[in-house]
Amino acid sequence: MRINSNISAVMTNNQLLRTEKNLSAAMERLSSGYKINHAYDDPSGMAISGRMDTQIAGLDMASRNTNDGISVIQTADGALKEVADMLQRMRELSVQAANDTNSDNDRAVIQAEIDQLKSEIDRVSETTEFNTKNLLDGSLDTRVYADHLTRERATDAVVAGKYTIKINKSAKQASLSSGISPASLGTVTKDQAGSVEINGAKAEIREGMSGDEVYAALREAAEKGEAKISDANEKLAFTSADYGKNATLNITVSSDELSAYLGLQREMISSGSDAEVDLIKPDEDVTSDANNKSRFTDSATISYDGNHMTVTDRDGFELDFMAEAGYIGNVDIEVTDMGAMSLQIGSNENQTMKVGIPSTDTKSLYIDDLKVTTVNGPGKSIAMLDKAIDRINNIRAKLGAYENRLDHTSNSLGETNEDMTSAMSRITDADMAYEMTEYTKENVLQQAATSVLAQANEIPQMALQLLQK
After folding, report:
1. Which of 215, 298, 328, 419: CA 20 to 30 A from 238?
2. Residues 242, 275: contact at Cβ < 8 Å?
3. Are strands 194-198 and 201-205 parallel, antiparallel or unpaired?
4. CA gyration radius for the chain?
């Protein structure tokens, strides 16, 4: 027997300490619910779960971002619904104005309502916002830059880069001239009296009218016939209000005497012409830098409406613009990938979605100069509004596609979040049944070890009994 070193007590104490440590760990898992409470519990599991936790937090925020994106689109779509309703009302008014039972005053009243609706469309375009961000003013659409062009717009299918066009001929207005100065017109005689029709709008030239009165009557008829008349101090000349091959001037004078008085032929017909443009293809560009070559492909085509041009290609490619009146020469069109709203719909870098919302004001819809007070105005207005309504419907359909995608994105993020949370749970969460079993086992072992330690501490007392004898 040894009393300096109670080996039995030391061994029992060491085992008791291990049991207490295991019991403490089991109690910590039971109280926290986690299997990994410290890095030493499972180093690799801690690293994996840390990355998973980051991803799950990112997915939660991406889901919120997605829902915010849906809210933006719903706000824009709600405003566009009102724009579509206003365009439909304007079309109804144009159909009403096209009926010849209406007087000039009636058409003026109809035009007044149309003007108010146009102003409201512009107001909606300028002021529709989400969290102070304008939605319909074009600031969320693809940015297109070009000199000598206006109203540039590009669809999502137009790849960022440079596109070059060559304007060989600018669109022209129809024009006619008499060579007589309106200021020099004398008083109308009985033989000279008659009528002049300008694109269907009649000017009555009566006996005794002064030169100024004749000019005023011609000016009013020209305005109603969608033509422009020269200044009273210049030579009497007319030009169509529109550019392009559909622009016409049709002037009919009722008599030879009036024709001679005005210096106009009894029947004069003139028409304008559309622009002529070449699309510069990559192999036609003389630029040595390949990055600056024009990106128009061999399958790209262009259509004209005066100076308004639309280039189309495969897969929804559409580049729309208006050329500056009278400009001839090359134009570089720079399409950028800036402007469209970027939604962060994933938890990692570059997991984004672009949302482009074009401008919807009257200028971008090409209805800013819509009039029903002219002779052919109601018919033209109907055609212009049909195109505008189609454009708004296409924009709304595009927004609807965005919203449907974001709905599926939100669902996908939810499913991914659920699966990743489940995977992380298997790594980090404690199995309560197992841990309770371990706790019970270690608790019993602790009690047993405590009892044994007490007995081991009694062994030196046996040595004292030997000394007493």
Report:
1. 328
2. no
3. antiparallel
4. 42
DSSP state of 242: S
Residues composing the chain: 469
Residue with tokens 């897969």: 315
Alpha helices in 180-269 (DSSP H): 211-224, 256-262
Cα–Cα separations (whole angstroms), residue 325 to 4, 32, 274, 328 = 113, 76, 11, 9
194-198 vs 248-253, strand pairing mode = antiparallel
Whole-angstrom Cα distance, residue 88 to residue 86?
Answer: 5
Half-sphere exposure of 86 toward its Cβ, with a 13 Å CA cutoff? Answer: 25
Q: Which of 344, 345, 347, 343 is nearest to 56 (CA)?
A: 347
d(CA 451, CA 442): 14
Percentage with pLDDT > 70 across the chain: 96
Please report where in the chains the tokens 């070193």 appear, as a residue: 5
Tens digit of each residue's pLDDT (9 = 90 or more) over 72-108: 999 999 999 999 999 999 999 999 999 999 999 999 9
Q: Are 336 and 319 in contact (CB under 8 A)?
A: no
Q: What is the pLDDT of residue 2?
A: 64
The Cα–Cα gap between 59 and 345 comes to 8
Residue 7: CB partners within 8 Å, gap ≥ 6?
none
Distance, CA of 392 to CA of 397 (rounded, Å): 9
pTM here is 0.83
**Residue 450 pLDDT class (50, 70, 90 cuts):** confident
Structure tokens at 178: 């008499």
> Scanning the structure block, which residue is given the tokens 């009894």?
266
Determine the distance from the C-alpha atom of residue 432 to the mean position of all C-alpha atoms in its chain, rounded to a whole number.
52
d(CA 39, CA 258): 105
Local structure of residue 196 (DSSP, 8 states): E
Tokens of 171: 């669109």
